[in-house]
Design a protein that fits this description.
alpha/beta, about 35% helix, 24 strands, Flavocytochrome C3, Chain A, domain 1, five-stranded parallel β-sheet
Length: about 550
C-alpha cells in the first residue's frame, strides 16, 4: 500500500486525495490547519476555464493554450500549459458529475462567460461563488473516501518540516497539533504540498491571511528554490475591508461591468478608450497598471469606479448575486443603482515552489501543487485559470507521486532527527532576549513589502525595501521570542522574512517589465535576457538569484 501525505485541504489538496483514492491500495493522510470549508479555494468567485465550445465561437484547447501563454508573457512551461488546457474540458465535466452546480444555458449545457484576457466564452461558473460550489462537491467526494477508511484527516495541525532518509528523499513530515502543541512525526511514501499562496505576508490582499506562506518559507530556507517570486498579480477591482481587501470578481466585467473615473466632471471609460478591442476584459496586470497610473499621475482623479448599473436585473440576480450582496452588506452600496469605488489589491502569486512539468520539487518524494507552486501562469495568470490549475495540479502531482513511489523503508522510526532538531530549536528560542510581539512585527514586514512590491516598481523603491528588511531582521527579528504567540509562529517568522527578501531580490534582478512585474526604470520587455524563469535559492547565509531557460514545446 502506498501512503500519500498531503499538506493542505483546498482544491489542489482535495483533488490529489481524490485522485489517489481512485486507484487501489493507496492511503491518504490529509493535513490542514482548518477544515476544507474554510480553505481559500472557497473564496474564488469567477469560474473555471475550459474550451467546451458550446457558444458557437469555434473555441478550442489550442486557443486556450495560446491565451494562457500570451497572458503569462511566455514564461510558463509550454508543455505543462498544453496538458492543462487539453484536460480542462474533461475536468469541468468531472466536476459537474461530482455535483458542482454550474450555471446552465437554455440548452442545459454548462454556461460559459467572458473573462479577462480571452476573446471566447470559456469560463464555466456557478453564479459568483464558483469556488464554494466546486469545493462543496469535492468535500462530499472526499468524505465518502474517509468513511471507507482511505483518507485520514488531521485538522488543526500545521506543517513544520519534511523528514528525509539517508538518501535525502522525503519520507514524511513533522507537524504540530495546534490544540495541545504536540509534535508529531508522520511517515509516508511521498508528500504533496498544497498550502496556497503567500498572502499572509501582506495586508493589501484578497486572499486568506491563513495562507501565511510559512510552509513555502520553511522549504525555501531548507534549500528548495522559489521560482518567479517577483510576479505578484494585483486584481484591479477590490475594496479595502478591515485588514485585507474584498474581491469584486472579474465576473462583473465579464458580464458587462464598465470601469471609469471622472475626468473634467465627465465619466471617462479609460479602458474602452485605450483598448477598444477588449476594453474592460484586458488581462489583470494591464488594468491594474492603468488604474495605478491614473491614481498616481493625475492629481485631479481620486477614485476609479466599476459600474454595473447598466446590466439587466436578470444578470445581476442570477450571475452576480454574491457581489451585490457583499457590497450591500459590508459597504452599504447598492451596485444596481450606484457605481462601486475600487482599488487594485494583491490577488494571486504566480511564483512559488519550483516544480517541474510533473510537479516534482528538487527533493525526491516531495511535490507541490496549487498556488504554492510555480506552474502554468508565467508572468501573469489568466482569469479563470486558478481553479483549473489547482484541480489539475493536484491530479498531476498525485499521479507523479504514485508513479515515482518512494518505497519508504524508514516508516517505523519514531524519533527522526528532524523531530529532535525542532525540539532543540524550541528550547533555544525560549532563551532569546528580545521580546517583540510577532503581530506587530508582521505588520511592519507587510508595510516593507507593500511599499517596495507595488504595481509599479523601480530600483530605488526595491533597494530601499531590501535595506529596510535587512535592518528589520537584524534589529528586531534576530534573537526574538514572543511568549504570547505560539511556538509555530516563533519558529517560522524569520523564515517568512527570508522568503520576503527573496521576493524583493527577485524583483531587483529582473531589470525589465513583463506581466505583473512593472519597472518604471526598465519599462520595456527584454526577451533576450529575461524570457527566463527567475530562481531564488537560499544557501543558509545568503540568497542567490539566477535565471533558467524555459523548456521548449514538444511536438
Amino acid at each position: 500500500m502506498t501512503k500519500l501525505i498531503i499538506i493542505g485541504a483546498g482544491l489542489a489538496g482535495l483533488s490529489a486525495a481524490i485522485s489517489a483514492c481512485k486507484e487501489k491500495n493507496n492511503e491518504v493522510i490529509l493535513i490542514s490547519t482548518m477544515p476544507s470549508e474554510r480553505a481559500q479555494s472557497v473564496m474564488a468567485e469567477g469560474g473555471i476555464n475550459g474550451a467546451l465550445n458550446t457558444k458557437g465561437e469555434n473555441d478550442s484547447v489550442e486557443e486556450h493554450f495560446n491565451d494562457t501563454m500570451n497572458a503569462g508573457l511566455h514564461l510558463a512551461n509550454p508543455n505543462a500549459v498544453k496538458s492543462l488546457t487539453y484536460h480542462a474540458p474533461q475536468i469541468i465535466k468531472d466536476l459537474a458529475s461530482y455535483g458542482t452546480m454550474f450555471n446552465r444555458d437554455d440548452n442545459e449545457n454548462i454556461d460559459l462567460r467572458n473573462f479577462g484576457g480571452q476573446k471566447k466564452k470559456r469560463t464555466a461558473f456557478a453564479k459568483s461563488s464558483s469556488g464554494k460550489q466546486i469545493m462543496t462537491s469535492l468535500i462530499q467526494k472526499v468524505r465518502k473516501y474517509e468513511i471507507q477508511g482511505l483518507i485520514k484527516r488531521y485538522t488543526s495541525h500545521k506543517f513544520l518540516k519534511i523528514i528525509k532518509n539517508e538518501s535525502d528523499a522525503c519520507i514524511g513530515c513533522v507537524v504540530i497539533n495546534t490544540q495541545n502543541q504536540e509534535l508529531i512525526p508522520i511517515f509516508g511514501d511521498s508528500v504533496i504540498i498544497s498550502t496556497g499562496g503567500m498572502h499572509g505576508l501582506f495586508t493589501n490582499t484578497t486572499g486568506s491571511l491563513d495562507n501565511t506562506g510559512i510552509v513555502t518559507s520553511e522549504l525555501f530556507t531548507s534549500g528548495i528554490p522559489i521560482a518567479n517570486g517577483e510576479f505578484i498579480q494585483f486584481h484591479p477591482t477590490t475594496m479595502k475591508f478591515s485588514k485585507k481587501h474584498l474581491l469584486i470578481s472579474e465576473a462583473a466585467r465579464g458580464e458587462g461591468g464598465r470601469l471609469f473615473s471622472y475626468k473634467n466632471g465627465k465619466k471617462w471609460y479609460f479602458m474602452e478608450e485605450k483598448y477598444p478591442e477588449m476594453g474592460n476584459l484586458m488581462p489583470r496586470d494591464v488594468i491594474s497598471r492603468e488604474i495605478w497610473n491614473i491614481l498616481n499621475e493625475d492629481d485631479s482623479i481620486d477614485n476609479v469606479y466599476l459600474d454595473l448599473t447598466e446590466l439587466p436585473e436578470e444578470i445581476l440576480e442570477n450571475n452576480l448575486f454574491e457581489i451585490i450582496d457583499d457590497c450591500e452588506t459590508f459597504f452599504n452600496i447598492n451596485p444596481k443603482k450606484e457605481p462601486i469605488p475600487i482599488i487594485p489589491g494583491i490577488h494571486y502569486f504566480m511564483g512559488g515552489i519550483k516544480v517541474d512539468e510533473y510537479h516534482r520539487t528538487e527533493i525526491k518524494g516531495l511535490y507541490a501543487a496549487g498556488e504554492c507552486a510555480c506552474q502554468y501562469h508565467g508572468a501573469n495568470r489568466l482569469g479563470g485559470n486558478s481553479l483549473l490549475g489547482a484541480v489539475f495540479g493536484g491530479i498531476v502531482s498525485c499521479k507523479t507521486a504514485l508513479k515515482d513511489r518512494n518505497n519508504n523503508q524508514n516508516s517505523s522510526e519514531t524519533n527522526p532527527k528532524e523531530l529532535l532538531e525542532i525540539k532543540e530549536q524550541i528550547n533555544q528560542l525560549k532563551k532569546r532576549s528580545r521580546k517583540n510581539p510577532i503581530p506587530t512585527l508582521k505588520n511592519e514586514l507587510s508595510n516593507i513589502l507593500e511599499n517596495s512590491l507595488d504595481i509599479v516598481r523601480n530600483e530605488e523603491t526595491l533597494e530601499k525595501g531590501l535595506n529596510d528588511l535587512n535592518n528589520f531582521i537584524d534589529t528586531k527579528v534576530e534573537d526574538n521570542y514572543d511568549s504570547t504567540s505560539g511556538i509555530y509562529e516563533n519558529i517560522n517568522f524569520k523564515n517568512q522574512c527570508l522568503l520576503a527578501k527573496a521576493l524583493i531580490e527577485s524583483a531587483i534582478a529582473r531589470k525589465e517589465s513583463r506581466g505583473a512585474h512593472t519597472r518604471s526604470d526598465f519599462p520595456e520587455t527584454n526577451d533576450k535576457d529575461y524570457k527566463k524563469t527567475t530562481i531564488a535559492r537560499y544557501n543558509g547565509k545568503s540568497i542567490d538569484i539566477h535565471f533558467e531557460e524555459i523548456p521548449k514545446l514538444r511536438e
